Amino acid sequence: MQECVVADGVVSATPDERALWTAIVVPEGVKERLRNHSLLAMRVRPQVPFTVTALHGLCTLYGPPGTGKTTLARGLPAQLAPFVPGRQVRRIEINPHGLMSAEHGQSQQRVSELLAEYVPVLAGDDPAVVILDEVESMAVARSEASLAANPADVHRATDAVLSALDHNARQHPNLFFVATSNFTTALDGAFLSRSDAAILVPLPGPDAVQQILENTLVSLAESFPGLRELALSPGLAAVAAHAAGLDGRRVRKLVFEALSLRLETVLDPAELTMHDLAAAAAAAEQDLAAQKENAHAAV
Q: Is the pLDDT of residue 105 over 70?
């Protein structure tokens, strides 16, 4: 089971840990919903029976790739730490892909052992956030898996996930699971019904794109001060308009794509201009249009 746990440690509200949360630009209310649902569950579930609350201690973050779902999940413990006894929260990250075994019948057993036995022991009595990244790999919609190569194992693995969530909801109220998914249509309906909240993390709009570009340039300006003026330039709004439709990860990389366009900016990033950023954004816009056209043609 240890190989399926990619990270395990105690988190407090240090500046480095809090930076994970603040680095992600999402619509107003997304972060608050995630923080408040998890904190409410951690405070209420140890005191009130599951039969009253029906809270499973599970939140699902869904939306396109690159929008910051996993980073938000990783940053959540530092947001909860100031409000819990001891001011620390354990963070446990699970790699669901490592659970799905090619051996017949093994996936169900591995899922049960990890989620219902190993994780609770690992957490002990500490408040813990357990991250299930790309959870669709282990909670596949059983109705959609009927024609799969080995549907029985898929069904059993999903059943095991649901049983583990039910078990932990009653026996381990200190655990709070955050699942991320790029494809909610692939998730089993019973899994989604167990989510205390399902929160959309969408692609950034123009204002969010501009903020991501500005934040990236301001951070780079700590090493290359000449970029600070560029970060505050009104021209950044026009660049953001061309970059609309890109995910947050790609928007952040757009600055580095612009830096790579000229040898001068590779050697000295402070030489970056708004023209460079606009050229990179225009190229990204063309790439995105081509991807959409290819996807439409393939349908």
A: no
| 110-154 residue pLDDT tens | 888 999 999 999 999 999 999 999 898 887 766 665 545 455 666
Residues 161 and 236 in one domain: no
Residue 149 and residue 80 in one domain = yes
The number of domains in the chain is: 2
DSSP-based helix, strand, coil % in the chain, nearest 5: 60, 10, 30
The sign one gets for the Cα dihedral 220, 223, 224, 229 is positive
pTM for this prediction: 0.89
Range of the domain at 155: 2-200
Maximal C-alpha separation, the chain: 65
How many angstroms separate the CA atoms of 91 and 259, rounded?
36
Angstrom distance (rounded) from CA 38 to CA 41: 5
Label residues 127-146 b or e (16+ Cβ within 10 Å = b).
bbbbbbbbbbbbbbbbeebe
Regarding whether 166 and 76 lie in a shared domain, the answer is yes
